[in-house]
From TrEMBL:
UniProt entry keywords in alphabetical sequence: Signal
Superkingdom as given in the UniProt entry: Bacteria
Domain called PBP: residue spans: 5-258
Protein name: PBP domain-containing protein
InterPro entries from the UniProt entry: PBP_domain, Phosphate_ABC_transporter
Length: 289
């Protein structure tokens, strides 16, 4: 089903690469359609949905919104799971570590005390631990806090990610924030001792980020099947609309496309496992928990 006009896919920066694959695939099938991908963060994506643009906007969100959220309970958002997304915990190679336990990771990010140098961890170098985090409102950060840390990240203490700001010198850890996963990767690639997180496929681009290492968590390495197994840092990418889009609208037509075999093939070519099976059932890893 094709539409003529413009559709905006707004939200997750982690899903940008895969969303662009879907965009190009749809536009090749439907030459009169213009699909715009705007990666501004999951929360910004849901904020962009209004009654006025329900026919032409879809929000890309890392993970399911809570059933008791205002978006679901009051505004009537409807979600379609598209593909599981595996995220990676990443470090600068100079740290010397190749994997961490979730327990170690929670200790590193603990507000109340924990290691501040990589040498305090097995195999670690004599470098300060520098936390490079996403800004508040990032879906990836929310998944990291909820599924890995089980608590919020510690306080912001640095602007340059290398040293604590003078006014925040008393804080335990060096922690900075960046607004996109591209900025996270650029920073971890450039700053010795840095640790952060990003979508797996982008993080694994060794040509672009030669100093970045993807870590195993509890001995499990993220990979093609990671999001479908017991790897802890994964979530479905869910496309939300403001209620049920009008018939024959750009949003309605694109959702129909996502439910079909052509979209499943594109997702597989992009290295993702489709959430919807051939008989239109939602695969277990993509269901609400």
């Amino acid at each position: 089903m094709c539409f003529s006009g413009t559709l905006r896919l707004v939200g997750s920066t982690a899903f940008e690469r895969t969303a662009d694959v879907l965009r190009r695939g749809y536009e090749a099938r439907c030459p009169d359609a213009d699909v715009e991908v705007r990666s501004v963060g999951s929360n910004e994506g849901t904020r962009a949905l209004t009654t006025g643009n329900a026919a032409s906007t879809i929000a890309m969100h890392d993970g399911h919104l809570r059933p008791d959220s205002d978006e679901i309970r009051i505004r009537g958002f409807r979600g379609l799971p598209v593909a599981p997304v595996a995220f990676a915990v990443i470090v600068h190679k100079g740290t010397g570590v190749t994997g961490l336990s979730v327990r170690d990771l929670r200790s590193i990010y603990a507000r109340g005390g924990g290691p501040t140098s990589w040498k305090q961890l097995r195999g670690g170098a004599d470098l300060p631990i520098r936390l490079v985090s996403r800004t508040e409102g990032s879906g990836t950060r929310t998944i990291f806090e909820e599924r890995v840390l089980s608590e919020p990240e510690p306080e912001l203490s640095s602007r340059d990610c290398r040293r604590k700001d003078e006014i925040r010198a008393a804080l335990r850890t060096i922690r900075c924030e960046r607004s996109s996963q591209g900025q996270i990767l650029d920073t971890v690639n450039a700053v010795p001792g840095a640790i952060g997180y990003a979508e797996l496929h982008v993080a694994a681009d060794t040509r672009r980020y030669p100093n970045v290492r993807v870590l195993a968590l509890d001995g499990r390495r993220p990979g093609a099947a990671a999001a479908m197994d017991h790897y802890p840092f994964a979530a479905p990418e869910v496309f939300y609309t403001y209620g049920l889009p009008p018939n024959n609208s750009p949003a309605s037509a694109f959702l129909t496309f996502l439910s079909g075999g052509a979209a499943r093939k594109l997702l597989q070519q992009a290295g993702s496992s489709p959430c919807l099976t051939a008989d239109a059932q939602v695969a277990a890893p993509c269901q609400t928990t």
